[in-house]
Design a protein that fits this description.
With 283 residues, the chain is α/β, with parallel strands linked by helices. It is 31% helix and 21% strand.
Length: 283
Amino acid sequence: MPRTTTELPDALDNPDLRRRLGAQPIALFLDYDGTLTPIVARPELAVLADNVRTELERVAARCFVGIISGRDLADVRAMFGGDESADRSGGGATEADHLWFAGSHGFDVAAPDGTRTEFEEAHAHLDALGAAADDLERALVDIPGAWVERKRFAVATHFRQVDDARVPDVEEAVDRVLGAHEGLRKTGGKRIFELRPDVAWDKGRALWSLFERAGLARDDDLAVFIGDDVTDEDAFVALGDDGIGLVVADEARPTDADYRLSTPDDVRAFLAELATLLEGAAR
């Protein structure tokens, strides 16, 4: 049964959590926005800080690391220095060459070697998503601060810069567009409404899919997921007793996570703790 975030034990310097993390190999999964970086006005401003990158690289040197984001695959890879269009036979390695990535909440996946896999059932909804994006652009033109982000497998309507009094108008427009296009569903997030293919796929299913594709086994490897948004709750639920969920939240809300981190800076501190633990175990 979900608890509130404020009821959860703090993940930092937690002896019980350290014992669990030290008992078996770790497979670490993380959201990006609001987890590795603070939430900002525009997605392109959410640049990964050097000190966070350093700790993440330390962890990735010792265990599996996968990024599961609502961003498009190319977008989230680019935040780590990866470029899907680049010639991978030349040039130096980037951090992205050592990580797994799942974009669009898991609909679009890239392995460290660049192999890309899309969730096939979602392809049938690409035309509806494109039409919905066009309709939303027209419907929101008179609401200051609202803007539409077209992703490959989603359409996001951002209202972080919209006056609170106009937010119901934004949602009404999203609901109206949703009703005009079959095969889509509405989800929410931090100051965002999103239309996605109405198929049985989410961050939780994507997590276990990555886990299995990487050759990991639930009896041998411990899955750990860190996320901040309501879309990350799908992953916390999917972990069940086979993993550990850490929610990044400084406000009280229901969650299925097991531990809490208050801010992205706490995530950096946790990554440093985890890296030290893994490095010590390898000696």
